[in-house]
Model the fold of this input.
Amino acid sequence: MGSLKLLIYALLSEQSALLAIFGPHPVWQRVLLFLTGHLIASSLFALLLTVSFPKQFVGLRRGVLGLFFCLNFFIPAFGAIGTLLILLYFRRYLNSKERAEFSNVPLPPFMPESADLGAGMGEGGAWSRLRTMSLPREQRLKALLSVGSSSGHNFSRLLQHATGDSDDEIRLLAFNLHERQEQKIQQAITASLSQLETAETPQLKASVCRNLAFSYWEMVYSALAQDDLREFFVEQAAKYAGQALQLGGQDPVLLILMARIQLQKRRYYEASRILEEAQAAGADSLKLLPYQAELAFHARDFTTVRRLLQQDRTIRFRPGIGPVAQFWGVR
Done:
Protein backbone atom coordinates (compact mmCIF):
# COMPACT_ATOMS: atom_id res chain seq x y z
CA MET A 1 0.00 0.00 0.00
CA GLY A 2 2.87 2.38 0.81
CA SER A 3 4.48 1.71 -2.57
CA LEU A 4 1.21 2.51 -4.34
CA LYS A 5 0.98 5.88 -2.56
CA LEU A 6 4.57 6.69 -3.51
CA LEU A 7 3.80 5.83 -7.12
CA ILE A 8 0.68 8.03 -7.20
CA TYR A 9 2.47 10.99 -5.59
CA ALA A 10 5.42 10.58 -7.99
CA LEU A 11 3.15 10.52 -11.04
CA LEU A 12 1.19 13.53 -9.83
CA SER A 13 4.38 15.48 -9.12
CA GLU A 14 5.80 14.66 -12.54
CA GLN A 15 2.52 15.63 -14.21
CA SER A 16 2.42 18.92 -12.30
CA ALA A 17 6.00 19.67 -13.34
CA LEU A 18 5.19 19.09 -17.00
CA LEU A 19 1.99 21.18 -16.83
CA ALA A 20 3.86 24.05 -15.19
CA ILE A 21 5.96 24.45 -18.35
CA PHE A 22 2.87 25.33 -20.39
CA GLY A 23 1.25 27.61 -17.75
CA PRO A 24 0.56 31.35 -18.14
CA HIS A 25 3.15 32.38 -15.53
CA PRO A 26 6.43 34.17 -16.28
CA VAL A 27 9.32 32.05 -17.52
CA TRP A 28 11.28 32.11 -14.27
CA GLN A 29 8.19 30.98 -12.30
CA ARG A 30 7.50 28.15 -14.77
CA VAL A 31 11.11 26.99 -14.53
CA LEU A 32 11.00 27.13 -10.73
CA LEU A 33 7.69 25.23 -10.57
CA PHE A 34 8.97 22.61 -13.02
CA LEU A 35 12.23 22.05 -11.11
CA THR A 36 10.36 21.80 -7.80
CA GLY A 37 7.81 19.31 -9.07
CA HIS A 38 10.37 17.34 -11.04
CA LEU A 39 12.72 17.20 -8.03
CA ILE A 40 9.95 15.82 -5.83
CA ALA A 41 8.93 13.30 -8.51
CA SER A 42 12.51 12.15 -9.07
CA SER A 43 13.02 11.65 -5.34
CA LEU A 44 9.78 9.68 -5.01
CA PHE A 45 10.54 7.47 -8.03
CA ALA A 46 14.05 6.75 -6.70
CA LEU A 47 12.68 5.96 -3.25
CA LEU A 48 10.01 3.72 -4.75
CA LEU A 49 12.54 1.68 -6.73
CA THR A 50 14.92 1.44 -3.79
CA VAL A 51 12.17 0.04 -1.56
CA SER A 52 11.15 -2.45 -4.25
CA PHE A 53 14.69 -3.73 -4.92
CA PRO A 54 15.70 -7.30 -3.91
CA LYS A 55 17.03 -7.89 -0.40
CA GLN A 56 20.56 -8.64 -1.58
CA PHE A 57 20.93 -4.97 -2.49
CA VAL A 58 20.17 -3.72 1.04
CA GLY A 59 23.79 -2.75 1.62
CA LEU A 60 23.76 -0.68 -1.59
CA ARG A 61 20.61 1.33 -0.88
CA ARG A 62 22.35 4.71 -0.95
CA GLY A 63 24.07 4.02 -4.24
CA VAL A 64 20.89 2.68 -5.82
CA LEU A 65 18.91 5.67 -4.56
CA GLY A 66 21.42 8.10 -6.06
CA LEU A 67 21.55 6.20 -9.36
CA PHE A 68 17.78 6.26 -9.96
CA PHE A 69 17.43 9.83 -8.74
CA CYS A 70 19.94 10.92 -11.39
CA LEU A 71 18.16 8.77 -13.99
CA ASN A 72 14.83 10.49 -13.30
CA PHE A 73 16.09 14.01 -12.71
CA PHE A 74 18.39 14.38 -15.71
CA ILE A 75 16.02 12.57 -18.12
CA PRO A 76 12.63 14.21 -17.54
CA ALA A 77 9.54 12.18 -18.43
CA PHE A 78 11.49 9.42 -20.17
CA GLY A 79 13.33 8.66 -16.94
CA ALA A 80 9.97 8.20 -15.22
CA ILE A 81 8.83 5.82 -17.97
CA GLY A 82 12.06 3.82 -17.60
CA THR A 83 11.56 3.73 -13.85
CA LEU A 84 8.06 2.34 -14.26
CA LEU A 85 9.31 -0.37 -16.63
CA ILE A 86 12.03 -1.38 -14.15
CA LEU A 87 9.48 -1.42 -11.34
CA LEU A 88 7.15 -3.67 -13.33
CA TYR A 89 10.04 -6.00 -14.16
CA PHE A 90 11.02 -6.50 -10.52
CA ARG A 91 7.42 -6.75 -9.36
CA ARG A 92 6.74 -9.50 -11.82
CA TYR A 93 9.80 -11.67 -11.19
CA LEU A 94 10.03 -11.14 -7.45
CA ASN A 95 6.57 -12.62 -7.05
CA SER A 96 7.34 -15.68 -9.19
CA LYS A 97 8.75 -18.76 -7.55
CA GLU A 98 11.29 -19.51 -10.28
CA ARG A 99 12.83 -17.24 -12.85
CA ALA A 100 12.79 -18.67 -16.33
CA GLU A 101 16.22 -17.35 -17.32
CA PHE A 102 17.96 -19.03 -14.39
CA SER A 103 18.26 -22.72 -13.71
CA ASN A 104 20.30 -25.05 -11.52
CA VAL A 105 22.79 -27.30 -13.25
CA PRO A 106 24.33 -30.17 -11.25
CA LEU A 107 28.10 -30.05 -10.92
CA PRO A 108 30.13 -32.59 -12.90
CA PRO A 109 31.67 -35.39 -10.82
CA PHE A 110 35.13 -33.82 -10.78
CA MET A 111 34.02 -30.43 -9.51
CA PRO A 112 33.36 -31.29 -5.83
CA GLU A 113 36.81 -32.85 -5.57
CA SER A 114 38.64 -30.04 -7.32
CA ALA A 115 36.79 -27.45 -5.24
CA ASP A 116 38.39 -28.70 -2.04
CA LEU A 117 41.53 -26.80 -1.10
CA GLY A 118 44.64 -28.80 -0.48
CA ALA A 119 46.14 -29.09 2.96
CA GLY A 120 49.31 -27.29 2.01
CA MET A 121 50.74 -24.77 -0.37
CA GLY A 122 53.55 -25.03 -2.85
CA GLU A 123 56.80 -23.14 -2.49
CA GLY A 124 55.88 -20.91 -5.41
CA GLY A 125 52.55 -19.93 -3.89
CA ALA A 126 54.10 -19.30 -0.48
CA TRP A 127 56.92 -17.26 -2.02
CA SER A 128 54.55 -15.03 -3.99
CA ARG A 129 52.35 -14.40 -0.96
CA LEU A 130 55.26 -13.56 1.30
CA ARG A 131 56.62 -11.06 -1.22
CA THR A 132 53.23 -9.35 -1.63
CA MET A 133 53.31 -6.82 1.17
CA SER A 134 49.75 -5.64 0.45
CA LEU A 135 48.23 -8.99 1.46
CA PRO A 136 46.72 -9.28 4.96
CA ARG A 137 49.01 -10.58 7.67
CA GLU A 138 46.92 -13.72 8.20
CA GLN A 139 47.37 -14.84 4.58
CA ARG A 140 51.12 -14.27 4.70
CA LEU A 141 51.39 -16.15 8.00
CA LYS A 142 49.43 -19.08 6.53
CA ALA A 143 51.76 -19.09 3.52
CA LEU A 144 54.76 -19.36 5.83
CA LEU A 145 53.16 -22.03 8.01
CA SER A 146 52.07 -24.10 5.01
CA VAL A 147 55.69 -24.90 4.17
CA GLY A 148 56.80 -25.19 7.79
CA SER A 149 57.11 -28.96 7.52
CA SER A 150 59.18 -28.78 4.33
CA SER A 151 62.93 -28.84 3.94
CA GLY A 152 65.55 -28.18 1.33
CA HIS A 153 67.36 -25.25 -0.19
CA ASN A 154 64.24 -23.47 -1.47
CA PHE A 155 62.57 -23.69 1.92
CA SER A 156 65.61 -22.14 3.58
CA ARG A 157 65.65 -19.32 1.04
CA LEU A 158 62.00 -18.66 1.81
CA LEU A 159 62.74 -18.52 5.53
CA GLN A 160 65.72 -16.23 4.99
CA HIS A 161 63.51 -13.90 2.97
CA ALA A 162 60.87 -13.95 5.73
CA THR A 163 63.41 -13.17 8.48
CA GLY A 164 63.96 -9.79 6.84
CA ASP A 165 60.26 -8.96 6.67
CA SER A 166 59.01 -5.68 8.09
CA ASP A 167 56.21 -7.45 9.98
CA ASP A 168 57.39 -8.54 13.44
CA GLU A 169 55.09 -11.58 13.62
CA ILE A 170 56.23 -12.94 10.26
CA ARG A 171 59.87 -12.33 11.11
CA LEU A 172 59.58 -14.07 14.50
CA LEU A 173 57.72 -17.01 12.96
CA ALA A 174 60.41 -17.40 10.31
CA PHE A 175 63.14 -17.45 12.98
CA ASN A 176 61.13 -20.00 14.95
CA LEU A 177 60.67 -22.29 11.94
CA HIS A 178 64.34 -21.96 11.04
CA GLU A 179 65.38 -22.90 14.57
CA ARG A 180 62.90 -25.76 14.69
CA GLN A 181 64.26 -27.22 11.43
CA GLU A 182 67.82 -26.95 12.71
CA GLN A 183 66.93 -28.60 16.03
CA LYS A 184 65.21 -31.44 14.22
CA ILE A 185 68.35 -32.28 12.25
CA GLN A 186 70.58 -31.79 15.28
CA GLN A 187 68.46 -34.25 17.27
CA ALA A 188 68.78 -36.79 14.45
CA ILE A 189 72.58 -36.33 14.47
CA THR A 190 72.76 -36.72 18.26
CA ALA A 191 70.66 -39.88 18.16
CA SER A 192 72.79 -41.37 15.36
CA LEU A 193 76.03 -40.58 17.22
CA SER A 194 74.67 -42.40 20.28
CA GLN A 195 73.72 -45.38 18.12
CA LEU A 196 77.18 -45.41 16.56
CA GLU A 197 78.81 -45.78 19.98
CA THR A 198 76.72 -48.88 20.75
CA ALA A 199 76.75 -50.41 17.25
CA GLU A 200 78.51 -53.77 17.21
CA THR A 201 78.28 -55.16 13.68
CA PRO A 202 79.84 -53.51 10.58
CA GLN A 203 76.46 -53.51 8.86
CA LEU A 204 74.84 -51.56 11.69
CA LYS A 205 77.75 -49.12 11.83
CA ALA A 206 77.52 -48.60 8.08
CA SER A 207 73.81 -47.84 8.36
CA VAL A 208 74.34 -45.32 11.18
CA CYS A 209 77.23 -43.66 9.35
CA ARG A 210 75.04 -43.39 6.27
CA ASN A 211 72.34 -41.59 8.29
CA LEU A 212 74.95 -39.27 9.80
CA ALA A 213 76.35 -38.40 6.39
CA PHE A 214 72.95 -37.41 5.04
CA SER A 215 72.02 -35.53 8.24
CA TYR A 216 75.18 -33.43 8.14
CA TRP A 217 74.67 -32.81 4.42
CA GLU A 218 71.10 -31.71 5.07
CA MET A 219 72.46 -28.93 7.27
CA VAL A 220 74.53 -27.76 4.33
CA TYR A 221 71.96 -28.26 1.60
CA SER A 222 69.21 -26.51 3.59
CA ALA A 223 71.54 -23.57 4.25
CA LEU A 224 71.09 -23.97 8.00
CA ALA A 225 74.84 -23.58 8.57
CA GLN A 226 76.96 -20.64 7.48
CA ASP A 227 80.67 -19.96 6.88
CA ASP A 228 83.03 -22.01 9.07
CA LEU A 229 80.22 -24.08 10.53
CA ARG A 230 79.14 -25.04 7.03
CA GLU A 231 82.65 -26.25 6.22
CA PHE A 232 82.55 -28.34 9.41
CA PHE A 233 79.30 -30.01 8.36
CA VAL A 234 80.67 -30.66 4.87
CA GLU A 235 83.74 -32.38 6.36
CA GLN A 236 81.58 -34.42 8.73
CA ALA A 237 79.31 -35.51 5.87
CA ALA A 238 82.36 -36.58 3.85
CA LYS A 239 83.84 -38.38 6.85
CA TYR A 240 80.80 -40.50 7.65
CA ALA A 241 79.99 -41.13 3.99
CA GLY A 242 83.50 -42.50 3.55
CA GLN A 243 83.14 -44.71 6.62
CA ALA A 244 79.77 -46.02 5.40
CA LEU A 245 81.32 -46.91 2.03
CA GLN A 246 84.22 -48.70 3.70
CA LEU A 247 81.95 -50.68 6.01
CA GLY A 248 79.01 -51.35 3.70
CA GLY A 249 80.51 -51.51 0.24
CA GLN A 250 79.66 -49.51 -2.89
CA ASP A 251 76.37 -47.71 -2.40
CA PRO A 252 75.29 -45.70 -5.50
CA VAL A 253 73.33 -43.17 -3.41
CA LEU A 254 76.26 -42.61 -1.08
CA LEU A 255 78.63 -42.26 -4.02
CA ILE A 256 76.38 -39.56 -5.48
CA LEU A 257 76.46 -37.80 -2.12
CA MET A 258 80.26 -38.00 -2.09
CA ALA A 259 80.33 -36.48 -5.58
CA ARG A 260 78.09 -33.63 -4.41
CA ILE A 261 80.40 -33.03 -1.48
CA GLN A 262 83.39 -32.85 -3.83
CA LEU A 263 81.45 -30.40 -6.01
CA GLN A 264 80.82 -28.31 -2.92
CA LYS A 265 84.56 -28.30 -2.27
CA ARG A 266 85.21 -27.47 -5.96
CA ARG A 267 87.23 -30.64 -6.43
CA TYR A 268 85.88 -31.32 -9.88
CA TYR A 269 88.28 -34.11 -10.83
CA GLU A 270 87.40 -36.11 -7.70
CA ALA A 271 83.70 -35.47 -8.26
CA SER A 272 83.93 -36.75 -11.84
CA ARG A 273 85.79 -39.88 -10.75
CA ILE A 274 83.22 -40.64 -8.02
CA LEU A 275 80.35 -40.16 -10.45
CA GLU A 276 81.93 -42.73 -12.72
CA GLU A 277 82.14 -45.12 -9.74
CA ALA A 278 78.48 -44.47 -8.96
CA GLN A 279 77.51 -45.22 -12.55
CA ALA A 280 79.52 -48.44 -12.46
CA ALA A 281 77.83 -49.35 -9.17
CA GLY A 282 74.41 -49.14 -10.80
CA ALA A 283 73.29 -45.58 -10.07
CA ASP A 284 70.39 -44.22 -12.10
CA SER A 285 71.92 -42.39 -15.04
CA LEU A 286 69.17 -39.74 -14.96
CA LYS A 287 70.11 -38.85 -11.38
CA LEU A 288 73.72 -38.38 -12.44
CA LEU A 289 72.89 -36.04 -15.33
CA PRO A 290 72.63 -32.78 -13.34
CA TYR A 291 76.00 -33.28 -11.68
CA GLN A 292 77.67 -34.38 -14.90
CA ALA A 293 76.25 -31.30 -16.60
CA GLU A 294 77.57 -29.12 -13.79
CA LEU A 295 81.05 -30.62 -14.20
CA ALA A 296 80.88 -30.03 -17.95
CA PHE A 297 79.88 -26.42 -17.30
CA HIS A 298 82.85 -25.86 -15.00
CA ALA A 299 85.04 -27.34 -17.74
CA ARG A 300 83.45 -24.84 -20.19
CA ASP A 301 82.27 -27.72 -22.36
CA PHE A 302 78.90 -26.19 -23.19
CA THR A 303 78.15 -28.64 -25.98
CA THR A 304 78.31 -31.49 -23.48
CA VAL A 305 76.13 -29.54 -21.05
CA ARG A 306 73.39 -29.25 -23.65
CA ARG A 307 73.79 -32.85 -24.78
CA LEU A 308 73.54 -34.20 -21.23
CA LEU A 309 70.50 -32.14 -20.29
CA GLN A 310 68.68 -33.13 -23.47
CA GLN A 311 68.98 -36.81 -22.56
CA ASP A 312 66.21 -36.32 -20.00
CA ARG A 313 63.21 -34.48 -21.44
CA THR A 314 61.47 -34.41 -18.07
CA ILE A 315 64.28 -32.51 -16.39
CA ARG A 316 62.71 -29.18 -17.37
CA PHE A 317 59.84 -29.90 -14.97
CA ARG A 318 62.04 -30.47 -11.93
CA PRO A 319 62.29 -27.70 -9.32
CA GLY A 320 65.60 -25.88 -9.25
CA ILE A 321 67.23 -27.32 -12.34
CA GLY A 322 64.13 -27.00 -14.54
CA PRO A 323 64.72 -23.35 -15.56
CA VAL A 324 68.40 -24.15 -16.14
CA ALA A 325 67.51 -26.99 -18.51
CA GLN A 326 65.06 -24.76 -20.37
CA PHE A 327 67.81 -22.14 -20.73
CA TRP A 328 69.99 -24.77 -22.42
CA GLY A 329 67.27 -25.56 -24.92
CA VAL A 330 65.58 -28.61 -23.38
CA ARG A 331 62.05 -28.72 -24.78
Notes: The two ends are 73 Å apart (CA to CA).
